[in-house]
Amino acid sequence: MKCLKVDEYIRRTASVEETELLLQELKSYVKSPPGLQGRTLCDRVIRACNHHLGAGSPDSDHVGHLVQLVEVSLHGYDVSAAVVAQSTPLYMEKIIFHIVKKLSSLEAQSLCSHVAGLLYSRLTPPQQAEDYCVLVRSCFSVLWNGLSATKDRKIVNPRDKLHCQMQALSFLLLLDAESASTPISKAPIYTEDAITEFESSCGAMTKDDADFLLQEMRALFKRCWTGSEGCNGDTPKQSAETSGLYVLSEMVLIVLKVLCKAGHYDQASTLVNEIESRIRDHADCRCTVAVLGKWAVKIHSTMKAGGESGQALTECARALRSLPAVLGDQEAHAVLEGCGLVVWAVESGHSKGLSGSVLLAWFSFLEEHQERILKMLKKNLTGQAEGGRLQQALCFSIYQGFVFAYESMLASQLEDGDTLDRVLLYCQATAGQMMTELRKLSSENFLVKAVIAVSNLACGLYNRRLYDQAFTLVEILCRDLCKSCPASLSVDRLSRPFMLAVQTSRRAGQLERALDWVILWLKALGDKITTHMAEPVSLWVKTKTDAARNSEEDVRLRTLHDGFGPDVPDERVMLCLLEEELRAYKEVAGDTAQERYNTLCDLLDICHEESTHTHLRAVYLCEMAQVVCYQDFSEQTDCTAVDFVHEALRLLEEEAETPENADRLKDDKAHALLWLYICTLEKNLQEAIERDKKQRELREQMRCVSNPIGTNDFDYEDKQKTQDSIQVYEGLHFNLGAENKLCKPLERALDEWSALLQCRALPSLRNPKQTCSSVAPLKALEAYQLAIGLSRHLADAHGSASSLCQSASILLDMGTPELALAQLEQAEKFLASDCTAEGPSSLSMMAILLKAQYCYSTGQVDLGVPYLCDVLKEVNEQRQSKSWYLLRARTLQICSSYLGLDTAALPQVQRGSITQHGIKSSDTALYESLKLLCSLLLTLVGKGLYGSNGGSSDVRFIDQGDNLVMKWQLLSELLNCSVKMVAVRSNCGAINDARLQCLEALKLAIKLQALSRCAELLVIKAELELMQGEREESGIDLDKVRNLLELCTDFSDQRMSFKGILSTRWSAKEPVVRDLASSPPLKAQPRRWLSSLAHDSDCQCPCCSEPCLGRATARWATTQADLVLQLDPNEARVSFKLQWATLARCKSVSAKLGAKLAKLFPPCGSAKGFTKPALMQDLVGRVYLRMALFGLEPRHEKICGIWKILEAGLAFVESTPSPVLRPIKAGLIATKAIVSLVTLAAKKGCTPEELFSDVWTWNAPKVDEELKSEQKRCHRPKTKPDPCLLPPDAPRNHVSKWSLATRVTQKPIHRQSPKKSTDVPKKRTTTRRAAQNSKTAPDPPAEKIPPKRQTRAKKSTALARVTSSDDDETLGG
């Protein structure tokens, strides 16, 4: 075969056919020895093929033939080269490289791989020439990049691609094996990329895929390392071979990881065993990497199966310890990769916390692992990227220890004390190292994770009550964070370890250390201190509370200002911290008055008189008043609570109002005004308690001196009664004028808040929730509406519902159930939207109870009983809460109202559903309620305020949380319950018990200086005195009421019209003293009425416009009418006019109240068109009944039109659905029946008794002489019946028997016989005793009333008690 020029060969290979002919010709030529020119011929043919591969885009057949021609030519070239040596090194290898490159560009991967294999065989064994390295590196780049270019086009299937990539890696391994001084090989990195791509393309790796991967790995291992006889010695070749072995080992580790992830543990074990065996058989080298890989496979498979791997981890640690201190770079790197595989196996294989033994083995391995990484880092021979990777591996290894320790603790695997101590010893030893090493990383993400891990472990120790161990661990972390806090660490994650440091110190009893850590915590917050100070300050306060409980006064008295020492923050920050400390003290369930005082002193030191913080100073002075108000600080300050408030108000008045501070200024003024009222009230209350205590002690001393032996005193009851009355009268040091002056700050506060809160937008308030709770004690209904609006702005569903329920309660007491129902419906909506409560809350039960009260007020008793029973069921359960106790007391009062109904209104079945809860009667319910309220009061404020237990008490009122509101709610409820108790006891005939209860309530009202309550209770006392015949004491009580309501009261602006009864200077006509031997008798002083009774109907003075005072004046008038009639029956006209004045007053007060309510609650929804308030309905009914009974008296026939009164009274009670008036209705119907009988008897000309003579056998009683004389007097012809009494068709004769019947049925009038009118009336000394002992005692001689008259009087008195049930429902304060 001739040797042609290259161009000729290019022409002969231009087509497939010609290339095929040349191929056959060349094959024949190569079979025989080609001779000297054979090398040149083959070289030119290869060049011609290279030309065509790069000239264009030949078809695949042509490329295939060209590759065959190259292979044959290359064989001929090598045969010829054996005869003649190659002059240029790597000459032909470079040509073949270009062919590989062009085949790669043509994407003929199979042919490219084939030619690359030819090239690889020519490049082995590795050489050290520079051209060689360049050529090998170029070969790898062409092959790897060519495969990467086909990645998206999916020309090669995953297995072929992996094969080609492994082939490319063969060239890279040649480059690594060329010199032992090369840096760390990148072959494992490329291997991981290739295998990861293969894994992802397979989806779920099957067994066939795993077998293929093993086959490729075996081929690569065999191709790249055949194994030498030994690795001893220090020759470069031996070092290079050893280095390549470690690179191959790293590549095997990558394959093992993929196989373990897919669960092909058998294939993985087979591979690693083969590699270990080949290393041991063919080289005297360490096979530590293979050992680590083998144990990693074992660990992963065991943990996935739920087994223990402690022994395997121990073996891994032992393998690492067996290594020499100094290792080659590549070997050290491979060992670390083996350790990394073990770490991965443990991390991904475990599904639960490690047991104690396994965890300790794991820590042992981690220690060896970390030591190897540190040694590698100390050499500082690796690049920056590799150094960063090693640093991260070191941090991760330490971090893993904390993660696994926490998980094992959660899984309760560390119950053994010795094991736990060893675990904690490791964690404490590595915590500081971890934080130090983490600072060397460029990213802070790992540092954040480490903080979380250490905090979690410390939290786990804290939960196991290992406080000292937890503190030791978290202290290391916190001190590092104090030095430098990473910017990426959130405030919550920063605060958590500091919180643990404080809490562990608290629980360990190291309270001073806990306070120190709070200060460090606040300093660590840096510029975020004011926005995240709540939690550390809260723990500061709790720690000081612990100190107070332990009597550690030095710790207790420290303030935050003291805690910072000389390193105090700036003034703005310090003010924020101290304000937060003060706010936290208020939320503590205990006495923190001293702590609050100290904090306020620090605040006032900053906001001193010369400072610019005058507004803040006023606020803090008001806060100081709240502290000093309830505790004696006389040893620390000369100022009283009232002094502090006055100074605060002065500063606030001087403060200039700007658009920025306008809202807060009004809010703070209102707060100060409110507390001026409260402090004044509390001061007066305390003075009253002290005065009462001194008087009690004085009376005890006097009693012991006057009666040292304690002999029997038959006048004891009268003396006690007189003493009680004197005690009550001595306390009446106030009047309407004084109350108006006392309440002026309250009125101004309400005006300020009304102006501030009536706008739709939420104003800028210092503390909106505090303002909301402060508004409530003001004028009830107006204040509650403001509180409701503010709560809505704050999205406070609970606060809104609470204010709505309180408003509904007041409206029910005022007799406007329609308005109350509208408030309740809104409250139910808010309660339904509040999902924070678990189970029924006291507020939700209060709403249901108010529903029951609404049903009672509207006469829907059948609907109200289920509501009442639901509440009874809940309140009977044991709930240790003041709000639940108060709710139970209120529930018992509603029970009393229901049980007080007759059987027609409350059938037996429904009554039984109430009594099954243990409440059997109305009296019992009120008694239990009163006991509960007294117990609550004693718990909250101590002794001396109510009842006879006036001794000293260790209990002192603490102004904390809702205690202040609870205190006044409790006092109001106590007075309400007392009034109801008085009504029930008096109605059932226990007048003495009712009077005693009234006295106790009156004493409380006097201490509270509750003028309207005092007035009403004094009137009730007057009624009770009158029922017992004590007319003089009754008159004194009514005079005291008049003094309360009129003394020092200026009514000059009112038009006073003293007409009718007020124009009469009435005085009692019976003489005070009558003695035959004495001078003419002295006349009684003229009786004076309440001037407000003569005011115009549109008068707006307190007695005419305020509902409670209006009710008291009306009740005063009707009681005065009864007293007038009993003192002098001839003054019937005056009494009758007083009754009419009562009706007029009731109508006027109800109309004014209705107008105010209509303005406060504009008609809308269910409240549209509500009826007028029924506040006075019981008084109106009672007046009608008394006037009807009054009309039965024959002497009053010209004064009283009884039929009109009966019709009006019955019409009134029929128009009112409330069951309160059912007794009144019964009385009116009975009176009407009596009048009808008398009228019928008058028509028939007989006595009323004779009307029934035909239907039963009845013997007329014997009539004594006095009765006969009266009958004769009544039968005089000139006496005629009252036309108002008889119906229009009644005859106008036969009046004598009518008069007798009237006398029998009328209410008794106590008067003296004309013959004995000169006797001086004596006090009855046995009245109380008779009531207590239920025995009948003779009347005093001065009375001399015949026995039969006394019998009638008893019957009539009983009737009067039954028909005057007017105190069942009264307005609450």
UniProtKB/TrEMBL annotation:
Residues 1269-1373 are annotated as: Disordered. InterPro entries: Peptidase_C50. One of its GO terms (molecular function) is cysteine-type endopeptidase activity. One of its GO terms (biological process) is meiotic chromosome separation. GO terms for cellular component: centrosome; cytoplasm; mitotic spindle; nucleus. PANTHER family: EXTRA SPINDLE POLES 1-RELATED, SEPARIN. This is Separin.
